[in-house]
């Protein structure tokens, strides 16, 4: 009888231990879109777009740009600017600028993102024909939040075989496989955001 009680208490303690370090969503800055690009002097620019979970806020999305040497350093700079702790676990879209794509060895910039187990590898990789800033700072009034709009746009085009939906994990596999050429979705900002291939 005492073994059953002890086992029940052990199970109860194991279940409740997950509630000890709970973080309210208001204290987390969830990066739904991450962007990487280079400026004119070839400095790395990192962009982050995250929703704001506050009733008082008029704008429901915040977008930041930092100049950094690595993704890891950019996270420290984002943490100094945003309200809560930066989290990459819900990233939906990973934008890569054309200037960065032309640089040899650009894929190495993504290495810290793959090494952190809290980051997701199911985000879609998207090449931007132009500047990432033109896309990420775009706030159309007739469209939903940019992260939702981009994922819906890519999903619909992938169903019609206009583009190939490539996640970070797929892209990593393609880049490491010497027998195949990697491919990702490409967008361009004209009057509005358009898929170009």
Overview of the structural elements:
This protein is α/β, with parallel strands linked by helices and 197 residues long. The protein has one domain (24-195). 32% of the residues lie in helices and 23% in strands. The strands form two sheets. A seven-stranded mixed sheet has the order 4-3-2-6-7-8-9, sandwiched between helices. Residues 21-188 form the Spore germination protein N-terminal domain. Keywords: Signal. Residues 1-22 form the signal peptide. This is Spore germination protein N-terminal domain-containing protein. It holds the Pfam family Spore_GerAC_N.
State the assembly state of the protein chains: single chain
Largest beta-sheet characterization? 7 strands, mixed
Structural class by helix and strand composition:
alpha/beta
Q: Helical segment tally?
A: 7
- Gyration radius from CA atoms, angstroms: 20 Å
- The N- and C-terminal alpha carbons lie at a distance of 67 Å
SSE run: HEEEEHEEHHEHHHEE
Unreliable spans are none
Overall outline: globular
Query: What is the domain total for the residues?
Result: 1
Beta-strand content: 15-25%
Which whole number gives the mean pLDDT?
83
Give the strand order of the largest sheet, numbering strands 1, 2, ... along the chain.
4-3-2-6-7-8-9
Q: Helical percent range? A: 25-40%
Overall number of strands: 9
Question: What layout of secondary structure does this protein have?
Answer:
Elements: H1 2-16, E1 28-30, E2 33-38, E3 44-51, E4 61-68, H2 71-81, E5 85-87, E6 93-97, H3 98-101, H4 111-115, E7 124-128, H5 132-136, H6 146-159, H7 168-176, E8 185-189, E9 193-195
Parallel strand pairs: 1-5, 2-6, 6-7, 7-8
Antiparallel strand pairs: 2-3, 3-4, 8-9
